[in-house]
């Protein structure tokens, strides 16, 4: 980790109001909350197809660049790689925040590297970055009920029952991202995998 490079926190999702509350857009929701907490505003980057918010996590804290790619999920890697190059961010300081079918709703899983588990946003990021060694903050959405197609499930809104606690879990995921940046991946795993 370098002191000069910021952390690149990538909320994965699809652009446009019609997707805003979908399970697949929970990465955008978490990025929005982190920006709000830090008093940062998103604006379109001048060179890359992404909305970015730059600043510090807190006064005197680590530098961050929050990212919401303006491409669709399966093309997220291009903007992420472009921004990593623009800000000179090493892959180990890139954090992908995304929905995860293989983790039950209410749970978070944090890891560095590994496979993409069929997640098109991660697959695109790994391909464009030329590495899988970025950090993932995986927000559990659980498996679809019955025989519902997973693609339809991720592109649908959270259920009424899930929405009752969604703000709490988004808040918790934002806490986890901030802890990874400030204290490291292992302490964050110890805290958020246990609860």
Automatic annotation (TrEMBL):
Which residues carry the site feature described as Stabilizes the basic form of H active site to accept a proton? 99
Q: Indicate whether tRNA-binding appears among the record's keywords.
A: yes
| Cell compartments where the protein resides | Cytoplasm
Q: Which InterPro entries match?
A: Pept_tRNA_hydro (IPR001328), Pept_tRNA_hydro_CS (IPR018171), Pept_tRNA_hydro_sf (IPR036416)
SUPFAM superfamilies under this entry?
Answer: Peptidyl-tRNA hydrolase-like
Q: At which residues is there a site annotated Discriminates between blocked and unblocked aminoacyl-tRNA?
A: 14
Known EC number: 3.1.1.29
Q: Which UniProt keywords apply?
A: Cytoplasm, Hydrolase, RNA-binding, tRNA-binding
Q: Top enzyme class of this protein?
A: hydrolase
What does the entry list as the binding residues for tRNA?
Answer: 19, 72, 74, 120
Q: Which domain of life is it from?
A: Bacteria
Which segments does the entry list as coiled coil? none
Q: Name the chemical reaction catalysed here.
A: an N-acyl-L-alpha-aminoacyl-tRNA + H2O = an N-acyl-L-amino acid + a tRNA + H(+)
Q: Which residues form the active site?
A: 24
In its UniProt record, a GO molecular function of this protein is: hydrolase activity
Q: Does the keyword Cytoplasm apply?
A: yes
Per the entry, what this protein does is: Catalyzes the release of premature peptidyl moieties from peptidyl-tRNA molecules trapped in stalled 50S ribosomal subunits, and thus maintains levels of free tRNAs and 50S ribosomes. Hydrolyzes ribosome-free peptidyl-tRNAs (with 1 or more amino acids incorporated), which drop off the ribosome during protein synthesis, or as a result of ribosome stalling.
Protein family membership: Belongs to the PTH family.
| UniProt subunit comment | Monomer.
Q: What is this protein called?
A: Peptidyl-tRNA hydrolase
Q: Which gene encodes it?
A: pth
């Amino acid at each position: 980790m370098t002191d000069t490079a910021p952390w690149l926190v990538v909320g994965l999702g699809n652009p446009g109001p019609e997707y805003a509350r979908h399970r697949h857009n929970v990465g955008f929701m978490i990025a929005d909350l982190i920006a709000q907490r830090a008093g940062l505003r998103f604006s379109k980057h001048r060179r890359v197809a992404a909305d970015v918010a730059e600043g510090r996590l807190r006064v005197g804290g680590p530098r961050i660049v929050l990212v919401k790619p303006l491409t669709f999920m399966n093309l997220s890697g291009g903007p992420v790689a472009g921004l990593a190059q623009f800000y000179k961010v090493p892959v180990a300081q890139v954090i992908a925040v995304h929905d995860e079918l293989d983790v039950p709703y209410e749970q978070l899983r944090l890891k560095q590297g590994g496979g993409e588990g069929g997640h098109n946003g991660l697959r695109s990021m790994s391909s464009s970055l030329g590495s899988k060694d970025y950090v993932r903050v995986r927000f559990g959405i659980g498996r679809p009920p019955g025989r519902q197609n997973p693609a339809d499930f991720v592109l649908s809104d959270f259920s009424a029952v899930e929405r009752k606690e969604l703000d709490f879990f988004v808040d918790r995921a934002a806490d986890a991202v901030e802890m990874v940046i400030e204290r490291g991946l292992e302490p964050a795993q110890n805290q958020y995998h246990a609860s």
